Amino acid sequence: MSQVRQVSSLFKISRWVALGGGLTYGYVHSCTLRNDAETKRINDKYAHQLTLIEEAKKKFAEKNSSGSTESFNFEDPNFDADKWFKHIESKY
After folding, report:
1. Could you give the CA distance from residue 38 to residue 32 in angstroms, rounded to a whole number?
2. Tens of pLDDT, residues 63-90
3. What DSSP character marks residue 6?
4. DSSP alpha helices (H): ranges in the chain?
5. Residue 63 structural domain
């Protein structure tokens, strides 16, 4: 005849406590990882938007500069109106 060994109730309770502790730890850790991933996603999205804004600013500055930084002095006696009109035409 085989003998059935009795398991102590302290051992049974400690098994259930360990299982409950592991489940609780897993849930809390999962929530922490989820929150960290969401924060990283938001920060990455914000950084991407900043880079897009900077690129748009650069393109806008290039478009509006039109390569000519010539200044005209209207009070100069040798003022060339034709040159000034051509400059205005090239802008628009």
Report:
1. 10
2. 877 555 567 777 878 888 888 888 888 7
3. P
4. 9-65, 81-91
5. 9-90
* 8-state DSSP, 30: H
Looking at the structure of the chain, the number of domains it has is 1
Q: Which of 73, 63, 64, 71 is nearest to 87 (CA)?
A: 71
* Spatial CB neighbours of 72, under 8 Å, sequence gap ≥ 6: 79, 83, 84, 87
Residues for the chain: how many in total? 92
DSSP 7: P
Q: Which residue's structure tokens are 């990882």?
A: 33
pTM of the predicted protein model: 0.54
Residue 70's pLDDT is: 67
